[in-house]
Design goal:
With 818 residues, the chain is an alpha/beta fold. The strands form seven sheets. It has a seven-stranded mixed sheet, sandwiched between helices. Strands 1-5-4-2-3 form a five-stranded mixed sheet. A hairpin with a 7-residue loop joins strand 4 (140-143) and strand 5. It starts with 34 loop residues before the first strand and ends in a 10-residue tail after the last helix.
Length: 818
């Protein structure tokens, strides 16, 4: 592609851009209140040619070009441009609002703008609405060509990304040139980038290749560490300590038993176990046997668990004491064994136990583990993650955070969350010690911070919501060994405070790309008026920001993030069509390269970091869990008392430390008998995990739709929070005068933490929108006021007066500390 000809001149007060054409034919207006682009020379000729060919005005052509450029940079499909008459000194401007769709043809868009301008009287004396009047804010002020002057575009800075003005000028000129050649092209197909820019956004941004001479699996690496440091602790849980030699010996027994049950290379083994040393041992044993493990939660609803087991088709399912299996049982081909059976030494260990040094059965391309994620059709998806991606992550951890023997890393995540592997394998495959967190220490940030210090944790990954709770912890400088804290799972809205005694990293990675894909260190000196970026791709990972046609967008423009290189999963188990939709051939590397379409919208910042913008679909993240809103809606619509449903996320407030919340809206099948929130919650709990059950429910006459027929989630998310369901008939909530001192204190705490106005003594903490993290916050705030209890007390006594009664028996609050 040839570089665009000289044309528009950018305002010199804008960010510096050494590529801005110098011979544009017009000087920049240094007094312009915003970035001004004066269009003379060749761009002016393209405008005139298009106007003559389309039978319209040059103003309409320029407005169409500005709207197209904004859509290509921001993905906004509604544009308002203010028009100003050329060759006059008037300051009045006429607003023209019009839609821009990527599939619009440029010539047709010009006609639409002309028609809109005439129908709204924008070519007559209609002034733009003043600020705050409710009129759409213009993205630019356009003075169309006319008379003795050329065209001028003044960009409204707040409506455009922070990119050099010269870049915008160059791309506007390119767009006009290409439209003049073929005005019937769809606007998404009009090129913007020249050859040098394409090279920069594809190759220069992805120089991540790092040599990896060791391509061994994590199981083989743990085996080597057991040979080198057999007596060093591998796993610690409370007072229990498992050395590397003990871990390998137990895992080898597990592998031998699994092989005896017929587990071969590539087979899957389900692990329905609690977080424990036994879970770590069994996972390692599965890998030594050549299989891949499937982490499953014991508190998973049995109906959902049955679906997962049917899809995974595990050769063996390992269970622990008291595990609840699906009512319909497990697939006939799946053998169910207890963890005690696997860990019991065989009667004749010499017959089946592999000898030390036996090469691993699995290869780098084989499946290491399977993680289920939420599915928009109502059925969870099983992601197949290969060994090579996990080993690459282990190498990156070692080089980036200097993980070595002697390092201590915590394990908090549930086995069904891919974060479990992120905690386990970079630790054990690099010779560190894995410390399992006592769940009771998570009742408060103080308790958990104390545990991190007491255990001497050195490298730590936490979900964003949990990490935020530790920002205010008083870290003791003389006893804190923590060097690196990684946080991720959902967007971090603001920078952590300065002065923390360790380095902080904002990380990002879908399940489909082996846990992590990008990482960015957060420097306290960075500007804090924006959310921290998600960083750059890891070693041997490639990150592309692409448009609707899977072509690179300009630097600073919004596009969908595609991830390639080492770490891309093999696909979805048993879902070839969906795999083909989300896992594509990598056109920038050629075969056998593949890339994954994340559905996340990002923009590349001037320094090369990626900034998270939002989603291109209805997937969300709440408390670190990836959720397809459609899966919840399918479950709601399946209930007989629900005719239609919609689910949205109500964003939390970083200032008030409130978390994002799922809000469910239902259209009752019988409007005279709307379903109760507790009934909806109970029914959803039978088929969905707790993190997918909405916090609050509201009723609608009908689900609001956009003009394109989609759920108007933006409108729903801006509505006031639904009032919790009324109390059962015959109960009357006590007023403040009827509350005991403990109840009064709990009302205050619940209102503060849940950000709601009204709490009654018969209310359920979870019906009001509470979750486990907010239970932890309530417990912490209660301790500050002299009322001592843990988050587990809220799970045991979720009704306010029942919790108050239980606490009153312990003596109530110590009023001297309030």
């Amino acid at each position: 592609m040839t570089p665009p000809p000289a044309g528009p001149m950018a305002d010199p007060d804008a960010p510096a851009d050494t590529d801005t054409p110098a011979d544009t034919g017009a000087a920049a207006d240094v007094d312009a209140p915003a970035r001004a682009l004066d269009l003379d020379g060749e761009p002016q000729r393209h405008i005139a040619a298009l106007a003559a060919r389309l039978g319209g005005s040059g103003t309409d052509v320029l407005v169409a070009a500005v709207g197209t450029l904004l859509m290509r940079y921001t993905r906004r499909t509604g544009v308002t441009v203010a028009l100003r008459e050329p060759d006059t000194a008037t300051t009045s401007a006429h607003p023209v609002t019009f839609p821009v769709d990527p599939q619009d043809r440029f010539g047709a868009l010009v006609k639409t703008i002309e028609s809109t301008r005439r129908s709204t009287g924008a070519d007559g004396p209609v002034p733009a609405g003043p600020p705050g009047s409710g009129a759409p804010e213009p993205v630019a002020v356009v003075a169309g060509p006319g008379g003795s002057v050329g065209a001028r575009v003044v960009l409204v800075p707040a409506q455009w990304p922070r990119v050099p003005a010269g870049q915008l000028a160059r791309h506007l000129a390119t767009l006009l040139r290409e439209a003049a050649v073929e005005p019937d092209r769809q606007v998404v197909d009009l090129p913007l980038l020249d050859a040098d820019e394409l090279l920069a956004v594809i190759e220069d941004a992805n120089r991540t290749v790092v040599s990896r001479p060791d391509r061994s699996t994590v199981a083989e690496r743990v085996r080597r560490w057991a040979d080198r440091q057999p007596d060093e602790p591998a796993v610690v849980a409370g007072d229990r300590r498992l050395s590397y030699a003990e871990l390998l010996a137990a895992a080898t027994r597990v592998a031998a038993t699994l092989r005896g049950y017929g587990v071969e290379r590539g087979d899957l083994v389900g692990l329905l176990l609690d977080r424990s040393p036994e879970l770590v041992t069994c996972a390692l044993g599965v890998l030594l046997a050549g299989g891949g493990y499937v982490g499953l939660d014991r508190d998973e609803p049995t109906a959902r668990l049955a679906t997962m087991l049917a899809d995974a088709d595990c050769r063996v399912l390992v269970t622990g004491p008291g595990a609840a299996l699906p009512d319909d049982g497990v697939p006939p081909a799946t053998r169910v064994v207890t963890v005690e059976t696997l860990l019991t030494p065989p009667a004749d260990p010499g017959t089946s136990t592999p000898e030390a040094g036996t090469p691993p059965v699995a290869s780098a391309e084989d499946v290491c583990y399977v993680t289920f994620t939420s599915g928009s059709t109502g059925r969870p998806k099983a992601v197949l993650v290969p060994h090579d991606g996990v080993a690459n992550l282990v190498d990156w951890y070692r080089e980036t955070f200097e993980v070595r023997p002697g390092d201590r890393m915590p394990q908090l995540a549930r086995p069904s969350f891919d974060g479990w592997g992120l905690e386990v394998w970079p630790c054990l495959a690099n010779g560190g010690t894995l410390h399992l967190v006592d769940r009771r220490r998570l009742d408060s940030p103080t308790e958990f911070g104390d545990w991190l210090v007491e255990r001497g944790i050195t490298v730590c990954f936490l979900t964003t919501v949990l990490a935020r709770e530790l920002f205010t912890y008083p870290w003791p400088a003389d006893r804190t060994r923590l060097r690196h804290l990684l946080l991720g799972g959902e967007k971090l809205h603001r920078y952590p405070p300065a002065g923390l005694p360790f380095r902080l990293y904002n990380v990002y990675g879908p399940t489909e790309t082996t846990m992590l894909a990008t990482c960015g260190e957060m420097d306290p000196a960075d500007p804090h008026d924006v959310a921290p970026p998600i960083g750059r791709p890891l070693a041997n990972v490639r990150a592309y920001v692409l448009d609707e046609r899977e072509r690179p967008v300009p630097a600073g423009a919004v596009g969908e993030l595609y991830l390639g290189g080492t770490g891309v999963a093999r696909g979805y188990l048993g879902r070839p069509e969906l795999t083909g939709q989300r896992f594509r051939p990598d056109p920038f590397t050629g075969p056998p390269g593949r890339m994954y379409a994340t559905g996340d919208l990002v923009r590349r910042l001037p320094g090369g970091d990626l900034a998270f913008v939002g989603r291109a679909d209805d997937q969300v993240k709440v408390r670190g869990f990836r959720i397809e809103l459609g899966e919840i809606e399918v479950a709601l619509r399946a209930l007989p008392e629900v005719r239609d449903a919609a689910v949205v996320v109500r964003p939390g407030s970083p200032q008030d430390a409130t978390a994002d919340r799922l809000i469910g809206y239902v259209v009752p099948a019988d409007p005279t008998r709307p379903p109760r929130a507790d009934r909806l919650r109970e029914e959803l709990g039978r088929v969905l995990p707790p993190f997918m059950v909405p916090h609050l429910f509201g009723c609608l006459d009908a689900v609001p739709l956009t003009p394109h027929g989609k759920v108007a989630r933006g409108e729903l998310s801006l509505r006031p929070l639904p009032v919790p369901a009324a109390d059962p008939p015959g109960t009357a909530p006590a007023g403040p005068a009827g509350l005991s001192p403990v109840e009064q204190l709990l009302v205050e705490l619940w209102r503060e933490t849940l950000d709601i106005d009204t709490v009654d003594r018969e209310d359920s903490f979870f019906d009001l929108g509470g979750d486990s993290l907010q239970a932890m916050r309530v417990a912490a705030r209660a301790r500050e006021r002299g009322l001592h209890f843990g988050a587990e007390d809220l799970f045991e006594h979720e009704i306010l007066h029942e919790l108050a009664d239980a606490l009153q028996q312990r003596g109530g609050p110590d009023r001297r500390t309030r």
